[in-house]
Design brief:
single chain; 323 residues; mainly alpha; 2 domains; two-stranded antiparallel ribbon; 12 helices
Length: 323
């Protein structure tokens, strides 16, 4: 439905979002069902008897979850049903042939490691579960329990990495738009500042925000960095960093305009301020516009230096892990 121009209209956008999530939920249910069926079909020894009652129960539960997903009218309900389906799918660990339990567990850990999960987490998984997996022949119940825990861990990290990528895409789009559009608005504001003086401040502010956006883009966290704090809190950190950058930009512009006679091609920042704010208008183009645009952007970008300085002086705050 998104192909139509009216997909974003009130009501239609909500309906499109719900149907998109419903499609993803039904797809997840089908994948979990296929994984369970595939494990149940694997060859096994005569002593390794398949738990038919558990298989039938999992099939029944997945069918009920699928029916609920088809009838759901709320996005939160669909999110819950995805989790229910994944937990039913994890029960395939109790259907796995004994000879393949260790291989399945090692595969789950290897997949988690491929996602860039910190090595401390991988080491913890090895210490907690690998020994039980190795004893699958002598103690299959404990080995299957360890495999189920690893499948749960894998699904948890899969959800986290998906949420992380989606959230980072949103932040990147907004920050990139700000880095491109705000300098244009700043140039327009400088051009008309001689007619309406507050536009000069607006231009400096826009340039400072643009520099801060570039600074944040340059330090978007990798997955292993993002795990040092909650993903939901990163939006607040972006706003705080932009706020620090804008404050530093305006303070720096005031200092350059007041008492720092640094010149670029015989043009100081104070000269450019005077030329663009004088009435009647004086030439505010070329090098003067670039100086007015570049200095606050550079000062806004220096938010990175301010953050590094703060961390060196006060240290990094202690933060919790993902779990």
């Amino acid at each position: 439905m998104r192909e139509w121009w009216w997909w974003w209209l009130p009501g239609w956008h909500k309906k499109w979002t719900l149907e998109k999530l419903r499609s993803e939920t039904l797809s997840t249910i089908r994948v979990e069902r296929s994984l369970v069926e595939e494990v149940a079909q694997r060859p096994r020894t005569s002593e390794d008897i398949l738990d038919g009652s558990l298989l039938a129960d999992v099939r029944l539960r997945l069918a009920e979850i699928e029916k609920s997903a088809q009838e759901a009218t709320n996005a939160d309900d669909l999110d819950d049903l995805i989790g229910f389906a994944e937990r039913q799918g994890q029960l395939r660990s109790y259907l796995c042939p004994v000879a393949e339990i260790q291989g399945e567990g090692s595969l789950a850990i290897d997949l988690i490691e491929e996602w860039g999960v910190p090595k401390t987490v991988i080491e913890k998984l090895y210490k907690s579960h690998v020994e039980k997996l190795k004893k699958a022949e002598s103690n299959p119940d404990d080995a299957r329990g360890a495999l189920r825990a690893l499948l749960n861990e894998r699904d948890s990290w899969a959800d986290y990495t998906d949420d992380y990528e989606d959230q980072m895409k949103v932040y990147t789009r907004w920050l990139s738009a700000g880095a491109v559009i705000l300098p244009m608005l700043a140039v327009i504001a400088f051009h008309w500042a001689s007619i309406f003086c507050p536009l000069l401040v607006f231009g400096l502010l826009s340039a400072g925000v643009a520099g801060s956006c570039v600074s944040v883009l340059a330090k978007m966290p990798l997955l292993d960095v993002a795990l040092s704090a909650e993903l939901e809190a990163y939006g607040r950190r972006i706003l705080s960093r932009i706020g620090v950058g804008v404050g530093a930009s305006l303070i720096g512009c005031a200092l350059f305009g007041w008492s720092l006679p640094i010149s670029i091609q015989n043009q100081t920042f104070a000269d450019s301020l005077s030329a663009c704010s004088a009435s009647p208008a004086v030439s505010c183009a070329g090098i003067k516009t670039l100086i007015l645009l570049g200095v606050p952007m550079l000062l806004g970008f220096s938010e990175r230096a301010l953050t590094s300085f703060e961390q060196r002086v006060f240290g990094n705050p202690k933060t919790g892990a993902k779990k």
